[in-house]
Design a protein that fits this description.
The chain has 8 helices and no strands. 9% of the residues are buried. It starts with a helix and ends in a 9-residue tail after the last helix. It has 3 domains: 38 residues, no CATH class; 56 residues, no CATH class; 62 residues, no CATH class.
Length: 161
């Protein structure tokens, strides 16, 4: 889940009393995080400094890549922990160092490679919701006879008819 801290700061800066701060927080939680402030939650947060604890040789951007990968691929039975971060950091092929800003920034071979990676995630039954959304965004690059990827990308059958 990504949170725009600038939006939170802007909203909270308008509050002038503890009650207004609580109301602003409640509104932000309800609207942005779909969380009820009257419910108890347990939340664990991890940051770049935590990744650097297990992989001090990584750059700031690489540490962010580890965190993005951990968030996308989190197993709810295991969660994110020191061993998970260490494992991701050790296998540098597991996370992109930079994400393209648009599909136009992706080379054709990269698209093909990415589609094959997504296929492997489908076949291993561990594709994440973010990866399904990514697959949907790459639907125009999927071959017309690739039924498996087209189905997972939610492309309607007989589109040309």
């Amino acid at each position: 889940m990504r949170i725009d801290s600038n939006e939170w700061v802007e909203e909270l800066s308008k509050a002038q009393s503890p009650e207004q701060i609580k109301e602003a927080l409640k509104s932000l939680f309800d609207q942005k995080m779909h969380m009820d402030m009257d419910t108890t939650y347990a939340v664990s947060t991890w940051c770049v400094d935590d990744v650097r604890e297990v992989a001090p040789d990584l750059s700031f951007e690489e540490c962010e890549g580890v965190l993005r990968y951990a968030e996308r691929k989190m197993d709810a039975d295991i969660g994110i922990n020191w061993d998970v971060l260490r494992s991701i950091a050790e296998d540098r092929d597991f996370y992109p160092l930079q994400e393209p800003s648009s599909l136009a920034d992706i080379a054709p071979q990269s698209v093909k490679d990415r589609l094959e990676y997504l296929r492997s995630q489908i076949e291993a039954e561990c594709i994440s919701q973010d990866e399904i959304l990514e697959l949907e965004s790459l639907a125009t690059y999927i071959q017309a006879d690739d039924v498996q990827l087209l189905q997972w990308a939610n492309v309607p059958e007989n589109q040309d008819e």
